Amino acid sequence: MKWILGFSAIAVVVGMAATMTVPAQTITPDEATLKLFPRETAGLAFIDVASLRSAPLYDEAVAAQFKAKLPPEVAQFGEATGFVVDRDLDRVTVARLKNRQMVAVAHATYDTFKVEQYLNDKQISTETYLGRVIFHPRGEGGVSFIDNMVIAGQTDAVKQVIDRLAAPAENALQNADIVNAIRTVEAGSQVWAVGEFDRSLLGIQRGTPPQIGEFIQALKSGTYQMRVDSDVHVAATGQFADSESARKAGDLLRGLVAVAKFQVSRQPDMIQLLDGVQVQQSGLSMMVNFDASGDLLKKLQSRRRSAAE
């Protein structure tokens, strides 16, 4: 079940990188799910897979990329249980707790008997907590299958979710910073994330350019949102420690876009794609917007596919 925890981590990494401005019409937080996470939640990421599947651009530009990121274990799991990720998975919410533990709550359609039989056949160790079975694929990780939910993450974090399924307790709905940040996300966004920024999630390596290091050091929190329809729309805003850091980050990103344009100066389609990136900053905030034509993305993907063949 390594893929479940890996999928959760990827979602959080994407989410913690940025935040956005307040739009006219925003999403309503999923209270039932937020009640499953502790009040001390530092960040949340969300993927509405069912909504993505219905987007006009999904089959041609999103599905292939989504499937390519799934590890081989997913296919093996699906063959044994009949579970197909891009058919049966509806939505995933990932929480990063203050102690840097992570836990994901996924809503999906699956055959509980087949799933548990598969895990038992693999001789995965288990424990029972408040009447719920927690499987331990490896290390400190745990996963539990409850009422068409998959709860996966560090075992202590999984148990905190089970605690709240059993009885009301302080939860993320009482975290004003998290709830207010969620309410800045534009309605219709299938992917979003909010919360404090944790540099450890990026796995920064030695040799990272100093400018990038300073940028990451000064980034404190953020929100990210993406909407896929006939086109792709992304908006993000990072909150920095001071206005000078926000200005430098904006200059750095604009410089990177300029360098990229120079490198693809003989490729009009790539220039058009990069023209969709807009970077601004105001006070402690840096805002990034990206809009890409669906037709352009399909054209570029078709060209990439032909080159690979």
Short précis:
The chain is of the alpha+beta class and 309 residues long.
Secondary-structure element pattern, one letter each: HHEHHHHEEHEEEEHHEHEEHHEEH
Q: Structural class, judged by helices and strands?
A: alpha+beta
Round the mean pLDDT to the nearest integer and report it: 86
**Proportion of beta-strand residues:** 25-35%
Poorly predicted regions are: 1-24
User: How many angstroms separate the termini?
Assistant: 32 Å
What general form does the structure show?
Answer: globular
Question: Reading side by side through the largest sheet, how are the strands ordered?
Answer: 6-7-3-2-1-8-9-10-12-11
Q: Report on the biggest sheet.
A: 10 strands, antiparallel
- DSSP summary, beta strand count: 12
> For the CA atoms, what is the radius of gyration?
20 Å
Number of DSSP helices?
A: 13
Bin the helical content. Answer: 40-55%
Overview of this structure, please?
This protein has 309 residues and is of the alpha+beta class. Helices cover 42% and strands 28% of the residues. It contains 13 helices and 12 strands. It has helices at residues 2-15, 31-34, 49-54, 58-68, 72-81, 85-88, 112-121, 155-166, 176-182, 210-218, 243-263, 268-274, 294-308, and strands at residues 41-48, 89-97, 102-108, 125-129, 132-136, 141-146, 149-154, 191-196, 219-228, 232-240, 277-282, 285-292. A 10-stranded antiparallel β-sheet has the order 6-7-3-2-1-8-9-10-12-11, with helices on both faces. The chain has a two-stranded antiparallel sheet with strand order 4-5. A hairpin with a 3-residue loop joins strand 9 and strand 10 (232-240). The protein is globular and about 60 Å long.
